[in-house]
């Protein structure tokens, strides 16, 4: 795929779930199945402690679910395992594998996302050569989150800045039912959540409530444009 084709694929995403192998002590496949039924259309496996074989095996199981439901499957940090497990995308941080190196590993078919935390990083990602830059970015953490202890929230101002640039982005960080409307109002056409769905008693209902707010806000870009 060309960079434009990869970015168009991400453009249709509205609600993005990030979760470990056992969210809330439950198998990820069960939580993912319910969350997708509620409106999640991108799923990222973020697992810092499991071995490589366990991550690849989980990705392969999730890929079967995602193929049936049209859900984008993403792995955090590891482009090599994303490729081995059949993920559609890999997401890296500022201090992880550089985007150019990740592209060398995964080739042209997988999408690459990059975390950004300030306007300079957002601008650098947007200004990068599309052949070697990220296909999309994560913007945040919008609010402080236990997932990133000690990291302050950047607020919705960075969301608005990202919305003023062309590269597709997803807002992330402490987003839940109490604040998602403000994030969408700031210009986020899609949001990523962790605990608000992964730890919910009813992941399907939690996803449906969040998706309704996102859908009621600014529409996602037309992937055909």
TrEMBL record:
Biological or metabolic pathway of the protein: Cofactor biosynthesis; thiamine diphosphate biosynthesis; thiamine phosphate from 4-amino-2-methyl-5-diphosphomethylpyrimidine and 4-methyl-5-(2-phosphoethyl)-thiazole: step 1/1
Keywords tagged on the record: Magnesium, Metal-binding, Thiamine biosynthesis, Transferase
Amino-acid positions noted as binding 2-[(2R,5Z)-2-carboxy-4-methylthiazol-5(2H)-ylidene]ethyl phosphate in the UniProt annotation, renumbered to this chain: 145-147, 174
GO molecular function, one term: thiamine-phosphate diphosphorylase activity
Residues the entry annotates as binding Mg(2+): 77, 96
Signal peptide range in chain numbering: none
InterPro entries in the record: Aldolase_TIM, ThiamineP_synth_sf, ThiamineP_synth_TenI, TMP_synthase
Family statement drawn from the similarity comment of this UniProt entry: Belongs to the thiamine-phosphate synthase family.
Catalytic activity: 4-methyl-5-(2-phosphooxyethyl)-thiazole + 4-amino-2-methyl-5-(diphosphooxymethyl)pyrimidine + H(+) = thiamine phosphate + diphosphate; 2-[(2R,5Z)-2-carboxy-4-methylthiazol-5(2H)-ylidene]ethyl phosphate + 4-amino-2-methyl-5-(diphosphooxymethyl)pyrimidine + 2 H(+) = thiamine phosphate + CO2 + diphosphate; 2-(2-carboxy-4-methylthiazol-5-yl)ethyl phosphate + 4-amino-2-methyl-5-(diphosphooxymethyl)pyrimidine + 2 H(+) = thiamine phosphate + CO2 + diphosphate
Residue stretches making up the Thiamine phosphate synthase/TenI domain: 15-197
Protein name per UniProt: Thiamine-phosphate synthase
EC number, as in UniProt: 2.5.1.3
Function per UniProt: Condenses 4-methyl-5-(beta-hydroxyethyl)thiazole monophosphate (THZ-P) and 2-methyl-4-amino-5-hydroxymethyl pyrimidine pyrophosphate (HMP-PP) to form thiamine monophosphate (TMP).
Cofactor: Mg(2+)
Pfam families from the UniProt entry: TMP-TENI
Details of cofactor binding: Binds 1 Mg(2+) ion per subunit.
Native source species: Patulibacter brassicae
UniProt gene name: thiE
UniProt: 4-amino-2-methyl-5-(diphosphooxymethyl)pyrimidine binding residues: 44-48, 76, 115, 148
């Amino acid at each position: 795929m060309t960079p434009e084709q990869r970015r168009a694929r991400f453009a249709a995403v509205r609600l993005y779930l990030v979760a470990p192998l056992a969210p809330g002590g439950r198998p990820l496949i069960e939580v993912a199945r319910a969350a997708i039924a509620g409106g999640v259309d991108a799923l990222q496996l973020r697992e810092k402690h499991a071995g490589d074989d366990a991550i690849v095996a989980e990705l392969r199981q999730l890929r079967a679910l995602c193929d049936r439901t049209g859900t984008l499957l993403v792995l955090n940090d590891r482009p090599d395992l994303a490729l081995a497990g059949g993920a559609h995308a890999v997401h890296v941080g500022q201090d992880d594998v550089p985007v150019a190196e990740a592209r060398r590993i995964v080739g042209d078919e997988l999408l690459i996302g990059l975390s950004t935390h300030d306007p300079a990083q957002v601008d650098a990602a947007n200004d990068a050569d599309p052949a070697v830059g990220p296909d999309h970015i994560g913007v945040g953490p919008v609010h402080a989150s236990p997932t990133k202890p000690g990291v302050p929230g950047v607020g919705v101002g960075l969301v608005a800045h990202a919305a003023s640039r062309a590269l597709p982005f997803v807002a992330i960080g402490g987003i839940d039912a109490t604040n998602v409307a403000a994030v969408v109002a700031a210009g986020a056409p899609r949001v990523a959540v962790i605990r608000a769905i992964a730890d919910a008693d009813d992941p399907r209902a939690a996803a449906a409530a969040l998706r309704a707010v996102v859908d009621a806000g600014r529409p996602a870009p037309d992937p055909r444009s």
